[in-house]
Specification:
alpha/beta, six-stranded mixed beta sheet, 12 helices, 42% helix, elongated
Length: 262
């Protein structure tokens, strides 16, 4: 759908790895509540690497790090390129911390790929009342049940948002504890180590070595005939018909110049 409707000039697909991440080493309870990945899903994830490559989309993964860290690295690396917009296509709102104006935006799934929500800087502020760069502090305070990150006990989204609007950062909150009500001051003082660890866990790595130096290395180069052959092998009849009806544009045709999807 993205290739057919958006035809981005540059693309990358980022994957998690099965090895424990540095977050697991820092906090053994990280994602501990999640059940093991079903074996049939693992085989599909492995095959998805091939699918992306058939579309001419480069695939990246790095042991010890999550896909979100690789996304953050590419967004950081190419987010200041002139005449380039970076679109992060994801189901994980952890990447909202990477949003920069309209240059780096997050397109999040709502209902499959058919319905998505676009988060630029204004949309993040509209939903959370905070700037994207404050989202790591926000999540450190409220926690993330899906990753088993506990956050600050007794601090919900409303209080976290109000504190960050007032003080700006988690560190500034600790610099001004005397200005907080006694009960709140006690909570922060008692759980500082846990809260600061939560921030480390939710903050994405942005400086990883992924073996890229220029955005041109992400230029999409699909081979429609090889893609047709691949779809025949997998029995993807609907996708094959779209290709045969020439609904999927070649990378050589007019594309959304200066757009990178990851």
């Amino acid at each position: 759908k993205i290739v057919r409707e958006e035809n981005p000039e540059y693309t990358a697909a980022l994957f998690d790895r099965p090895e424990p991440t540095f977050r697991k080493e820092q906090y053994p309870g990280y994602k501990a509540q999640r059940p093991p990945t079903p074996s049939d899903l693992i085989s599909q994830i492995i095959e998805a690497h091939t699918l992306f490559q058939k579309f001419g989309i480069r695939v990246f993964e790095k042991p010890g790090f999550e896909a979100d860290d690789l996304i953050a690295t590419l967004a950081e690396k190419f987010g200041n390129e002139p005449n380039l917009a970076v679109v992060i296509l994801t189901g994980d709102l952890d990447t909202l911390q990477m949003v920069r104006g309209k240059k780096v935006v997050v397109r999040a799934f709502r209902k499959g790929i058919s319905e998505t929500t676009l988060y630029d800087e204004h949309a993040v502020q509209e939903r959370y009342g905070l700037q994207p760069k404050q989202m790591t502090d926000y999540k450190a305070l409220v926690g993330d049940a899906s990753d088993n990150i506990k956050g600050a006990p007794g601090i919900g989204p409303k209080t976290a948002g109000e504190l960050l609007k007032r003080f700006g950062t988690l560190e500034k909150i600790y610099d001004n504890l005397e200005k907080l009500p006694e009960k709140l001051r006690e909570k922060f003082g008692r759980t500082k180590a846990e809260i600061m660890l939560s921030k480390k866990l939710v903050e994405l790595e942005k400086k990883l070595d992924v073996g890229l130096s220029r955005v041109d290395e992400l230029k999409r180069r699909d081979d429609k005939e090889k893609l047709k052959e691949y779809f025949r092998e997998l029995g993807f009849g609907t996708f094959l018909k779209r290709l045969e009806n020439d609904n999927v544009p070649d990378a050589k045709k007019e594309s959304h110049q200066g757009k990178i999807f990851s």
